[in-house]
């Protein structure tokens, strides 16, 4: 019998970061993040990093808006360090918000942190390989220590490939797929959602004391959930995701989690997400 451990790890920080610049095309995901935060974090003592809804973004070093992202990363790192949390739970506009919380937790726990990347995409591009130049497709590669220097220079301890498991990824660019194979990054497909009890046991048995759960809502099948930013065919239902979240919170020590890339295309969807992931954000 596994013990429910999500509330045993000390001081928690609830972070709201409506950073849309990693997407760059519009502030739609920022509005979605603010709406999702109202549903999911109501009554919490949240820390919000202010982000302008309009900003002229330049292309720097092959990436769009890197100067803006680097400045906001520094601000977010300062806020996290001031709070000195043991756990961090983030509602963010794009996957780019993950750099500060994951980097902080990985340093705090000396690399004893498994990162479950629930996402239809691997986010393993670099500015050189990215088809779009948008940072939200480079985030995980940057956390692994390979990315724009403006951001990697702010990561005191990069992740190692052995810490990462891609869950539900199904739309990888060729350089990303090659890296997954060459670096030995673990992957899990629909079987993780079909048997969440077994998957959570495998995660717990992988040798890491704590896990961080990155949740890009495009991991969910858009036929069941329309309000993700980068809708991608296939994937689990929202109910399947909720079942996996439940098992991970029951069986594993959750050091942090995120919900990102929500875009309100159905007025019911913010509440549906909150219900699906509420155990993570207790």
Structural account:
This protein has helices at residues 28-40, 66-83, 99-108, 139-143, 149-152, 174-183, 190-194, 196-204, 238-251, 269-277; strands at residues 12-17, 46-48, 59-60, 63-64, 87-92, 113-118, 164-167, 186-188, 210-215, 254-260. By secondary structure, it is α/β, with parallel strands linked by helices. The radius of gyration is 17 Å and the shape is globular. α2 (66-83) crosses α3 (99-108). The protein has a single domain (12-281), classed as Arginase, Chain A (3-Layer(aba) Sandwich). It is built from ten helices and ten strands.
Instruction: Give the SSE string.
Output: EHEEEHEHEHHEHEHHEHEH
CATH-level-4 superfamily name: Ureohydrolase domain
DSSP strand tally:
10
Shape: globular
Catalogue the unreliable spans.
1-7
- What is the CA-atom radius of gyration, in angstroms? 17 Å
CATH top level?
Answer: Alpha Beta
Q: Would you give the CATH topology? A: Arginase, Chain A
How far is it from the N-terminal to the C-terminal residue, by CA? Answer: 21 Å
Supply the CATH architecture: 3-Layer(aba) Sandwich
Please give the domain count. 1
Sheet with the most strands, sense and barrel status: 8 strands, parallel
Number of helix segments? 10
Average pLDDT reading: 94
Percentage of β-strand residues:
15-25%
- Spatial strand sequence of the major β-sheet: 2-1-5-10-9-6-7-8
Helix content: 25-40%
Structural class: alpha/beta
């Amino acid at each position: 019998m596994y013990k429910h451990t999500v509330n045993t790890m000390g001081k928690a920080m609830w972070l709201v970061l409506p950073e849309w610049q990693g997407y760059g095309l519009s502030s739609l995901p920022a509005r979605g993040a603010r709406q999702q935060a109202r549903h999911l974090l109501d009554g919490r003592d949240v820390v919000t990093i202010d982000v302008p809804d309009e900003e002229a973004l330049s292309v720097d070093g092959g990436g769009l808006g890197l100067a803006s992202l680097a400045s906001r990363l520094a601000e977010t790192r300062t806020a996290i360090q001031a709070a000195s949390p043991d756990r961090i739970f983030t509602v963010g506009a794009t996957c780019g918000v993950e750099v500060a919380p994951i980097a902080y937790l990985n340093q705090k726990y000396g690399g004893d942190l498994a990162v479950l990347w629930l996402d239809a995409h691997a986010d393993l591009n670099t500015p050189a390989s990215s088809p779009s130049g948008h940072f939200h497709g480079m985030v995980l590669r940057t956390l692994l220590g390979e990315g724009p220097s403006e951001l990697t220079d702010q990561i005191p301890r990069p992740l190692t490939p052995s810490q990462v498991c891609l869950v539900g990824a199904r739309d990888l660019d060729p350089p990303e797929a090659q890296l997954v194979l060459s670096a030995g990054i673990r992957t899990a497909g629909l079987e993780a959602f079909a048997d969440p009890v077994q998957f959570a046991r495998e995660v717990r048995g992988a040798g890491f004391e704590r896990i961080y759960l990155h949740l890009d809502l495009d991991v969910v099948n858009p036929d069941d959930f329309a309000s993700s930013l980068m809708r991608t065919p296939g994937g689990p239902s929202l109910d399947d995701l909720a079942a996996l979240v439940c098992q991970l919170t029951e069986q594993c020590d959750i050091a942090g989690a995120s919900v990102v890339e929500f875009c309100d295309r159905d007025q019911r969807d913010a509440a549906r997400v909150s219900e699906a992931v509420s155990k993570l954000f207790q």
